[in-house]
Write a structure and sequence with these properties.
The protein is mainly alpha-helical. The protein has helices at residues 8-22, 25-40, 65-81, 85-88, 98-133, 147-175, 181-199, 206-211, 216-244; strands at residues 46-52, 55-61. It has a two-stranded antiparallel sheet with strand order 1-2. The longest helix has 36 residues, at 98-133. It is globular, with a radius of gyration of 22 Å. It starts with 7 loop residues before the first helix and ends with a helix.
């Protein structure tokens, strides 16, 4: 019997570091998706024009919405990926249990969401640079953001990315219990979403609750609370899976 009894925090830290290095490939797909999103916005996300006499004016609108949307999709599928058996077997390199493995995965999702959210926000500067290189005049639709406003936008983006990552992680944990759940879970979720949208007043709709909150601190409480609940549900499902096996 080993006299070495590592603490949970040290064990989670070592596993997180291992996953950060071992899962580096998922960041390659993130960069590829974000570059693809920038290409999609090359011609602008909207256009308008006007003319007066011999003078014509053409305007194209640009935003990072596509970049952020694809980044959230990346977080969702990457979270599902790290719950698969091939990735879970990597934990056997450590003296571990289901709790420490889950905590390390969640810590990885948090850190990966920070990186993904920041690169998604910074992509706006890449879009602007492309327009300058092409000789276009770029006019911002808003006043230059103060540091506090920029940090608020970056934090919101990170939370959205982590939110979709937490959803993907829970779905991944559930689908690992039985293969048929891979098909059943998405169908049930989509069905519940339609039912929820049909019977619940629009003011309480899912989209409005999470995506149209104007008070940042209230938005932050909603998102952090939901993410913690999703992670807690993932831990409970994983423990149940361990018992079944």
């Amino acid at each position: 019997m080993s006299l070495n009894n590592p603490s949970l925090s040290k064990l989670v830290g070592k596993q997180w570091l291992f996953k950060w290095k071992g899962f580096a490939g998922v960041f390659n797909s993130m960069v590829a998706l974000q570059l693809l999103a920038i290409v999609f916005t090359w011609g602008g996300t909207g256009q308008s024009g006007t003319s007066m006499g011999n003078v014509s004016l053409s305007m194209s609108f640009y935003s990072t919405d596509t970049v952020v949307a694809l980044t959230m999709g990346w977080a969702f599928f990457s979270a599902i990926l790290i719950t698969t058996k091939a990735y879970r077997n990597d934990d056997f390199l450590f003296v571990t249990n289901r709790l420490s493995s889950n905590l390390a995965n969640m810590l990885f999702l948090v850190s990966a969401s920070v990186v993904a959210g920041l690169t998604a926000i910074i992509s706006q500067y890449a879009i602007q640079m492309i327009q300058y290189v092409q000789g276009h005049t770029f006019i911002s639709s808003t006043a230059p953001l103060a540091l506090g406003e920029w940090l608020t936008g970056a934090s919101a983006t990170i939370l959205y990315v982590l939110f979709f990552g937490a959803i993907g992680y829970l779905i991944g944990c559930i689908t690992q219990m039985h293969r048929t759940l891979v098909v059943i879970v998405p169908v049930v979720l989509i069905g519940l979403l339609f039912i929820f949208s049909s019977f619940v007043p629009d003011v309480f709709s899912f989209f409005r609750f999470y995506f149209q909150e104007h008070t940042f601190w209230l938005f932050m409480i909603k998102m952090v609370g939901t993410i913690l609940l999703l992670f807690l549900a993932s831990i409970l499902v994983s423990n149940r899976q361990e018992v079944i096996k």
